[in-house]
Amino acid sequence: KKLDVARPEAYYNEAILTQEYRSKGSGDTSKTIEVLRQAITQYETFISRAGSRPDFKDAVKVSKDRIQDINDTLQFTSETERLRKEEEEMNKAAAAAAGKDGAGEAGTSKGTGGSGDVPADPAD
User: How far, CA to CA in Å, does 54 sit from each of 5, 8, 66, 116?
Assistant: First the structure.
């Protein structure tokens, strides 16, 4: 790419390296998303530089397929992260409700008439 920016294959090769290796080494979801978006940009640059040249026809098709795969991965990752946050919020709410319910029930005896705190129901 540095020797001849007009050579499309350099962008294609870099895009594959970015998608297959750089995106997997981060271990951080947000970093992986950023790197995958970078790979999309590189594939798109390759496609635009390759144009309709017959010698790059197959690589252009593969690039378009890889862009679709990355977009599918990004959508799945986004949905997974949304569900994880949703579950985390539900667990927090459930824990808070369990803590509130458990504290509120201790030491009360409503309607039994046994403790003298609450008058017995006359219907009994």
Answer: 19, 13, 19, 93
